[in-house]
Amino acid sequence: MVKVGVLALQGAVIEHIRSIEASGAESVVVKSVNDLAEVDGLILPGGESTAMRKLIDRNRMLAPLQAFAAEGKPMFGTCAGLILLANKLVAYDSAHIASLDATVERNSFGRQVDSFETKLSIKGVAEDFQAVFIRAPHIVEVAAEVEILASHEGRIVMVREDNILGCSFHPELTDDHRITKYFIGMVEESLAKHKNL
Amino acid sequence: MTNNLTGTDRVKRGMAEMQKGGVIMDVINAEQARIAEAAGAVAVMALERVPSDIRAAGGVARMADPRIMEEVMGAVTIPVMAKARIGHITEARILEAMGVDYIDESEVLTPADEEYHLRKSEFTIPFVCGCKDLGEAARRIGEGASMLRTKGEPGTGNIVEAVRHLRKVNAQVRKIVHMNEDELMTEAKNLGAPYDILLQIKYNGKLPVVNFAAGGVATPADAALMMELGADGVFVGSGIFKSENPEKFARAIVQATTHFQDYKLLVEISKDLGIPMKGIEISRLSASERMQDRGW
């Protein structure tokens, strides 16, 4: 069984843990560099990206997270997690983990009163995914090698670049585990690939 | 043509789910808000005065001047919450119109209605409310609260009441979960709780919304204690900006909340913090000074 970690510094951790377990993989709560070494893939949950970044720095986890992605291990960021993964942020001079070749704009759908849920068609995953957007970011532009998996009202909201998956919304707030299963599939592929090397 | 749904339970409760494991800090201006954000706060509560100053000032405490909320909203990118008086429909609508992210229908302010709380389900903006026990928690959820917090005793820097309230709610939730369904209606009567909310708690094994600790958190160890007891996160009111070194206290409380069971780390982050806010022994408060008794 593959081991999928959830970065547990702050945010909707338990929802992802439940979804991983419901999808037939083993879950690990990742709070430190040692925990990170245990897992085959990592989910960066929804929460507040600014708070998570402070805690990543105080735990000296930034370089290990970047190395994790560089080794080809799958990472999946939802909302705040997407912000952590992007290599360019609108109105900011620097990015965070910067492993996804995309420009992301924070809070780009408005404040909390503008938060919404809607049905999305996601390439290769689902035609009718109930997606919950909370003070959500969106993906302004992507490099040529990044595949766009979903858009909403002309804005890119889900992408994949090789081993990196990111979305603007919160699959963890629904009982629909199809995206988690898709990500676990990526983790299984990456393990098989490394075995064959 | 859009099929976007705003203001649903999932969207309102989900916003609070994203705050879990984090610290929400009271601030009274843009400068304090920036300090809170830099320390790793997940949200700020914009106020005219922190609870300990409300206590000291006396008189009627009301919603803050909208200018303060605007200033704070312009200064930070994290969510901004604000307080409305219990039952004050218009203060809540004003805050909603301003676009603050969350409203605290709060006993820290002087209640506007001594009989009825807000019908929070009618609003697009989500609400957080205080509770001392499960009856109160379930009534607030029944009215549409999307997030709960313990009442504690605000502005005292004394954790004892928050501990009492969190333990009580969690013990009562455990009791409901293990109760026979035949017994649930009588329990609803005894608690003064809506039956359908208790039924949801029984079958989900937990409250349907997150429950943060609030009202008396003054040190990193206080924050970690509340997490240990099962809080989903922590509000710190006067504890940060009434301490000797707000930046350090804020950072330490954020770290303690995430790593609440890493006791060696708690040793390190509790060192050399300077003087915490001065506390108040609860028994020294007169009945009229107890904010936790406001709300019904």
UniProtKB/TrEMBL annotation, chain A:
Q: Tell me if Acetylation is a UniProt keyword of this record.
A: no
Quote the InterPro entries the UniProt record gives: Class_I_gatase-like (IPR029062), PdxT/SNO (IPR002161), PdxT/SNO_CS (IPR021196)
| UniProt pathway | Cofactor biosynthesis; pyridoxal 5'-phosphate biosynthesis
The record lists the catalysed reaction(s) as:
aldehydo-D-ribose 5-phosphate + D-glyceraldehyde 3-phosphate + L-glutamine = pyridoxal 5'-phosphate + L-glutamate + phosphate + 3 H2O + H(+); L-glutamine + H2O = L-glutamate + NH4(+)
Pfam assignment, any one:
SNO
Any GO MF annotation of the entry = pyridoxal 5'-phosphate synthase (glutamine hydrolysing) activity
Question: Would I find Zinc-finger among this entry's keywords?
Answer: no
Q: What is its EC number?
A: 4.3.3.6, 3.5.1.2
Task: Identify one Gene Ontology CC term for this UniProt entry.
Answer: glutaminase complex
Residues reported to bind L-glutamine: 47-49, 106, 134-135
Q: Keyword set for this entry?
A: Glutamine amidotransferase, Hydrolase, Lyase, Pyridoxal phosphate
Which residues are responsible for catalysis? Answer: 79, 170, 172
Checking PANTHER family in the record gives:
PYRIDOXAL 5'-PHOSPHATE SYNTHASE SUBUNIT SNO, PYRIDOXAL 5'-PHOSPHATE SYNTHASE SUBUNIT SNO1-RELATED
Q: Which family would the database say this protein is a member of?
A: Belongs to the glutaminase PdxT/SNO family.
Query: Tell me, what does this protein do in biology?
Result: Catalyzes the hydrolysis of glutamine to glutamate and ammonia as part of the biosynthesis of pyridoxal 5'-phosphate. The resulting ammonia molecule is channeled to the active site of PdxS.
Instruction: Summarize the subunit comment.
Output: In the presence of PdxS, forms a dodecamer of heterodimers. Only shows activity in the heterodimer.
- Can you say what this protein is called? Pyridoxal 5'-phosphate synthase subunit PdxT
Per the record, the gene is pdxT
Automatic annotation (TrEMBL), chain B:
Query: Which domain of life, per UniProt?
Result: Bacteria
Q: Which InterPro entries match?
A: Aldolase_TIM (IPR013785), PdxS/SNZ (IPR001852), PdxS/SNZ_N (IPR033755), RibuloseP-bd_barrel (IPR011060)
One Gene Ontology MF term: pyridoxal 5'-phosphate synthase (glutamine hydrolysing) activity
Write out the entry's keywords from A to Z: Lyase, Pyridoxal phosphate, Schiff base
Question: What are the recorded Gene Ontology BP terms?
Answer: amino acid metabolic process; pyridoxal phosphate biosynthetic process; pyridoxine biosynthetic process
- UniProt: D-ribose 5-phosphate binding residues: 26, 155, 216, 237-238
Which residue numbers delimit the PdxS/SNZ N-terminal domain?
Answer: 9-214
The catalytic activity of this protein is classed by the Enzyme Commission as: 4.3.3.6
- Reactions that this protein is recorded to catalyse: aldehydo-D-ribose 5-phosphate + D-glyceraldehyde 3-phosphate + L-glutamine = pyridoxal 5'-phosphate + L-glutamate + phosphate + 3 H2O + H(+)
- The name of this protein is Pyridoxal 5'-phosphate synthase subunit PdxS
Q: What organism, scientifically named, is this protein from?
A: Psychrobacillus insolitus
Give the source lineage, highest ranks first.
Bacteria, Bacillati, Bacillota, Bacilli, Bacillales
